[in-house]
Design brief:
Blueprint: H1 4-7, E1 16-21, E2 24-29, E3 33-35, E4 48-52, E5 61-65, E6 72-76, H2 78-81, E7 97-104, E8 111-113, E9 119-122, E10 127-130, E11 142-143
Antiparallel strand pairs: 1-2, 3-4, 4-5, 5-6, 6-7, 7-8, 7-9, 8-11, 9-10
Length: 153
């Protein structure tokens, strides 16, 4: 198994870098890196991420660790799933957009979104921060796809 250092190509070409990920080679620039000072919950040691997503993945994007390209999280805009999603965010200022992390289970019916821990981003200042909504009724495992109920037909 290749070590993590080989996953990030050292070659620099006009400030473009390449990550060798499970889904292929991804290019990025220094300007596309979001710094997570506190990391993500459960991944405190991972501080630098890029957001990547091609048209074939819409409406999803991937949050990919620059230091460990095999670590990535599917993201979605929570308003796509819940248009009235409006969490009470008190302690974070100057964020510009929000995503939620998607968890993909073993079946199509087991795809959920953590609506209780959104990830906030600032494009201008290039930071990201995951927060926990403590006074919220939003679910940790909000289903994206409702199970198809068999009616015996």
């Amino acid at each position: 198994m290749p070590d993590k250092e080989n996953k990030k190509e050292k070659q620099k070409n006009n400030d473009v870098y390449y990550l060798d990920t499970k889904i292929g080679k991804i290019e990025y620039t220094d300007e596309s890196i979001y710094n997570f000072v506190e990391g993500l919950y459960g991944f405190k040691d991972h501080k630098k991420f890029i957001i990547w997503g091609g048209e074939q993945y819409r409406p999803f994007k991937l949050l990919i660790s620059v230091d460990d390209p095999d670590l990535f999280f599917p993201l979605i805009n929570p308003k796509i799933l819940m248009p009235d999603y409006n969490p009470n965010i008190k302690d974070v200022q100057d964020w510009e957009f929000m995503c939620t992390i998607v968890t993909i289970g073993k079946s199509r019916d087991d795809v959920t979104v953590n609506m209780r821990a959104p990830v906030l981003f600032s494009k201008k200042d290039k930071w990201g921060k995951q927060i926990i909504l403590t006074d919220s009724n939003y679910l940790i495992r909000h289903k994206i796809v409702n199970p198809i109920k068999s009616n015996g037909v």
